[in-house]
Amino acid sequence: MTDRHAADLHPKDSPSDRLRTYGTRAREVIEATDLFGVEALARDLADCWQTGRQVFLCGNGGSGANAVHIANDFLYPVSKTPGSGLRIHALPANSSVVTCLANDEGYDQVFAMQLAVLARAGDVLIVLSGSGNSPNILKAIEQAKRQGVRSYAILGYSGGKAKATADVPIHFAVDDMQISEDLQMMVAHMIMQWLSANWPMQSETAQ
Question: Is 174 helix (H, G, I), strand (E, B) or coil?
């Protein structure tokens, strides 16, 4: 960008001011949220780590990318010891499976039909969604119920239909998709650090 074009811009605030405001908004949302669901998820994931129960993640767009990121964090960085991470799967990760199911069965089935094959009673599903209304997310929750899989939903905005159908909703009431998606990662990263700090010997017992 030339100096002339830069001079033509008249932003309402500076990037540094926007970052401070952004961080303040995220903090205020956390402080206003009932964190019971976060506590429940953290303790359930601790039990999954200790017992070998599987964990499944799903989401669309940025939430789908977060699902893949979170699966990585709980598979290896949680302990950094070969063979000691959680048995965790990001359902958006396999593009061949996703596009096959979308083409043959419909995009609303791309996560539910994977669960139908891979999940077992007692496993955990974590859905990530800003709106809570994505049809494939809702179908995944329905499939989880049929199989005895406990479902958690990390949601923004009003929480949508997923707030009522998930076993444990974690609802951050914020009308901002970027902050909603950031809070998904904040919850996951916090739980990963909590597990690493409180179960440091799990890497040895899991082998």
Answer: coil
**Where is 207: in which H helix or E strand?**
none
Cα 89 from Cα 72, distance rounded (Å):
9
- How far does the chain reach from its first CA to its final CA, in angstroms? 55
The upper half-sphere exposure of residue 144, i.e. CA atoms within 13 Å in the direction of its Cβ, equals 28
Going from N- to C-terminal start, the domains of the chain cover 52-196
CATH number of the 52-196 domain: 3.40.50.10490
Q: Is the dihedral of CA 198, 196, 46, 151 positive or negative?
A: positive
Q: Rounded to whole angstroms, what are the CA distances from 83 to 78, 79, 204?
A: 11, 9, 9
Query: What's the predicted TM-score (pTM) here?
Result: 0.92
Cα–Cα nearest to 202, from 88, 103, 112, 84? 84
> Could you give the angle at the alpha carbon of 29 between the alpha carbons of 182 and 127, nearest 5°?
45
Angle at 82 between CA 79 and CA 87, to 5 degrees: 75
Residue 128 CA to residue 153 CA, distance in Å, equals 6
Please give the radius of gyration of the chain, using alpha carbons only, rounded to the nearest integer: 19
Report the candidate in 122, 156, 199 with the shortest Cα–Cα distance to residue 137.
156
pLDDT tens per residue across span 132-189 = 999 999 999 999 999 999 999 999 999 999 999 999 999 999 999 999 999 999 999 9
For residue 134, what are its two tokens? Answer: 């994505």
